[in-house]
Inverse folding.
């Protein structure tokens, strides 16, 4: 399923009747993440890519923000249940159902690949395959950006950390177990180290409880 075009002002907050999860995220979760996603958008635009891939796009709010700045974006997710439902979308944005562990794109397709706040909620066996696909589809000299929780959240007693931990717990037993496993195994730097990569630059967000991890390939 691919949505080629949608109206810029209405897409982010459009719904189908069968999208209660999208309503929940757009009105309760996304407002908490908007500053972090704005930071990602600014970083993307600062790198001046021509084509961007976002894996695990979910509500597509991050993809929308980048596309509305004139950059061509492809957003993919394993399901369309969180996608905007408006009939018209920016020409710069394509939304597609695809498995992040086996992307339907050739090698070296994008200048920048991106995943936002998704790795921590995945089963351990899916994280490395997805990062490998983000790297495979990235052109030489391109940049991979990963927005996710920092391992420092484990021992933090800040209000932000408690709020995040509460949300992750409320998301369900399996989700919470994946979140804990992600942090226990070193988070994003730990995953990159397994593949022989290191974080090039790190930008703290969510009051230091998460970060944008930048890797130049």
């Amino acid at each position: 399923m691919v949505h080629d075009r949608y109206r810029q002002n209405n897409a982010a907050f459009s719904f189908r009747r069968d999208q209660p999860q999208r309503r929940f995220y757009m009105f309760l979760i996304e407002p908490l993440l908007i500053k972090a996603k704005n930071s990602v958008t600014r970083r993307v635009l600062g790198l001046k890519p021509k084509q961007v891939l976002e894996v695990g796009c979910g509500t597509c709010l991050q993809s929308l923000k980048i596309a509305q700045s004139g950059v061509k974006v492809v957003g993919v997710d394993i399901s369309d249940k969180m996608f905007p439902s408006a009939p018209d979308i920016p020409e710069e944005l394509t939304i597609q159902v695809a498995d992040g562990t086996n992307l339907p794109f050739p090698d070296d397709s994008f200048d920048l690949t991106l995943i936002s706040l998704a790795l921590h909620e995945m089963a351990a066996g899916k994280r490395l395959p997805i990062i490998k696909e983000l790297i495979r589809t990235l052109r030489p000299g391109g940049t991979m950006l990963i927005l996710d929780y920092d391992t420092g959240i484990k021992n933090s007693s800040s209000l932000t950390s408690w709020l995040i931990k509460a949300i992750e717990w409320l998301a369900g037993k399996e989700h919470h177990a994946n979140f804990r496993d992600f942090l226990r195994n070193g988070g994003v730097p730990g995953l990159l180290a397994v593949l022989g990569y290191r974080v090039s630059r790190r930008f703290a967000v969510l009051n230091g409880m998460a970060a944008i991890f930048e890797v130049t390939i």
Remarks:
- The helical segments are 20-47, 61-67, 124-136, 159-170, 173-184, 187-194.
- The first strand starts at residue 2 and ends at 3.
- The chain has one domain: 2-216.
- The chain has six helices and eight strands.
